[in-house]
Specification:
Blueprint: E1 36-37, H1 58-61, E2 65-71, E3 75-80, E4 83-84, E5 89-90, H2 92-102, E6 108-111, E7 122-124, E8 129-131, H3 134-144, E9 147-150, H4 164-180, E10 189-190, H5 200-210, E11 213-217, E12 222-224, E13 234-239, H6 266-275, E14 280-286, E15 288-290, E16 304-305, E17 315-316, E18 321-323, H7 324-336, E19 340-341, H8 344-350, E20 356-357
Length: about 350
C-alpha cells in the first residue's frame, strides 16, 4: 500500500566506487576490526577502473558542492500486473543512463538484494514497476559508471523488531552481497524502508559500522560536512515526487494521488540546487521517470501527463512517477552550476567517513 509515509518518516510533501580505498582517509572501525575494500567484490575487476571516482579529503571538500542522482530500488521500467510495459517510460538502462553519461554524470541505484535476480526483473510497487536484475546492474556499472547501494536484504517493514542476526543480514549482509556481485559503491548508503520511520538503534549498531550513511528524508536534501562526523551518520535525501499539478485552476490540481499531495516542479528542485553551498551534498531520489501521457493500461492504475510546456501543469497520480523532461531540467541545472555528481561512498569519504568497511 502506498501512503504519504511509505518512503520516509516525514511526509513526502515535506521530504523529501569500482571502489577505491583512499590512503589516509580510512576512519576508525574499532580495535582489531577487519576491513575490506568498500566495494571490491569478487567480480569488481570486471567493472573497470574508469568507473572508480577519486575520493576527496575533507579539507578539499569544504570548497566543493556535491550531488547524487539516486534511483530508489533501481526501478528500471514500468509494468502492467508484472508484465513489462515500456510505454511512456524513460527506461533506466536505455534512456536515463545514456543521457546522464552525455552530461558527464552517472547515477546511483539501490538494490533489495534478496529479491534481485540474475537476469529476471523483480516485480514491485503493486505490480506496476520492475527492478533491475544483477545483469542489468552490472551493465549499468560497466557501461555508464553507475554505483549501487543497499535497500536492505528483504525490505523488512520493521527492521528494528528483528533479532540481531537478521538485523546484521539486512544491513551489513546486503552490502556484502552487492560486493560479491562486483558492483561498486555498496557501502556508501543503506536506504531503510521508509514506512517504519528511522531505525536509529539499527543504524547505530550496524548501519554506521558497514555504511558511510543511513538515508533520512528531508525537505532540503542537503547533507553537510558536519554530518560526516555526527553519529549515527544520517544523510538527507529529497525525493522527486509526483502528484497533482501546481495550477490551482486546472482540473489536474484535484486529481486523486497516492503518496504525495503535490507534484514537485523542476523550479522547486532547482531552487535546492541553487541553495547548495560549498561543503554540502544534495541527494535527489527518483523512482520511474515517465514521458508524454500514460498508456491505456489494463490493470496498472498509474496515470500521468507530462505533455504541457508549462511544468505547473505536469502531474502524476503516484509518487513513484515523475516527468522525465522535468528531471532533465534539474540535471542540466546541476551541470550548469558546476556541481560534482558523485556516489554516496565518495561523498562520505569527502566528508570524513571511512573509505572501507567490514
Amino acid at each position: 500500500m502506498t501512503s504519504l509515509f511509505r518512503y520516509g518518516r516525514r511526509p513526502l510533501l515535506v521530504l523529501a566506487a569500482a571502489a577505491c580505498v583512499a590512503a589516509g582517509t580510512t576512519g576508525t572501525l574499532g580495535a582489531g576490526a577487519a576491513v575490506r575494500p568498500a566495494s571490491a567484490g569478487s567480480g569488481a575487476a570486471a567493472v573497470g577502473a574508469r568507473t572508480a571516482l577519486p575520493h576527496t579529503r575533507p579539507a578539499a571538500a569544504a570548497s566543493k558542492r556535491y550531488a547524487t542522482l539516486y534511483f530508489s530500488r533501481s526501478e528500471v521500467t514500468g509494468a502492467d500486473t508484472c508484465t513489462q510495459d515500456d510505454s511512456g517510460i524513460a527506461r533506466l538502462d536505455t534512456t536515463v543512463a545514456p543521457y546522464l553519461q552525455s552530461l558527464g554524470m552517472s547515477g546511483t541505484g539501490s538494490l533489495v538484494t534478496s529479491v534481485t535476480h540474475k537476469t529476471k526483473n523483480n516485480c514491485t510497487h503493486n505490480g506496476d514497476s520492475l527492478t533491475a536484475s544483477w545483469a542489468q546492474a552490472t551493465s549499468l556499472a560497466q557501461t555508464y559508471g553507475w554505483h549501487f547501494v543497499s535497500a536492505t536484504a528483504t525490505y523488512a517493514r520493521n527492521i528494528a523488531s528483528l533479532p540481531p542476526t537478521r538485523q546484521q543480514a539486512e544491513t551489513c549482509g546486503s552490502a556484502n552481497t552487492i560486493d560479491n556481485h562486483g558492483l561498486p559503491g555498496a557501502h556508501g548508503l543503506i536506504a531503510y524502508p521508509g514506512a517504519q520511520g528511522l531505525p536509529t538503534d539499527v543504524q547505530a549498531k550496524y548501519g554506521a559500522r558497514c555504511f558511510a550513511w543511513g538515508r533520512e528524508y528531508d525537505k532540503s536534501g542537503a547533507t553537510t560536512a558536519a554530518m560526516g562526523t555526527t553519529a549515527p551518520y544520517w544523510q538527507f535525501t529529497r525525493a522527486l515526487n509526483g502528484g497533482p499539478c501546481n495550477d490551482p485552476v486546472a482540473a489536474c490540481y484535484t486529481i486523486p494521488a497516492q503518496g504525495s499531495t503535490l507534484y514537485a516542479t523542476p523550479a522547486e528542485i532547482i531552487a535546492l540546487v541553487d541553495a547548495l553551498k560549498p561543503g554540502q551534498w544534495l541527494t535527489l531520489q527518483s523512482y520511474i521517470l515517465v514521458t508524454g501521457k500514460n498508456p491505456p493500461y489494463a490493470q496498472n492504475g498509474t496515470r500521468w501527463n507530462c505533455n504541457s510546456s508549462d511544468p505547473d501543469l505536469h502531474w502524476t497520480n503516484d509518487v513513484e512517477r515523475y516527468c522525465y523532461n522535468d528531471f532533465q531540467q534539474v540535471v542540466r541545472a546541476i551541470k550548469a552550476r558546476g556541481i560534482t555528481v558523485t556516489d554516496p561512498l565518495t561523498g562520505g569519504v569527502a566528508f570524513g567517513r571511512p573509505a572501507s568497511y567490514p
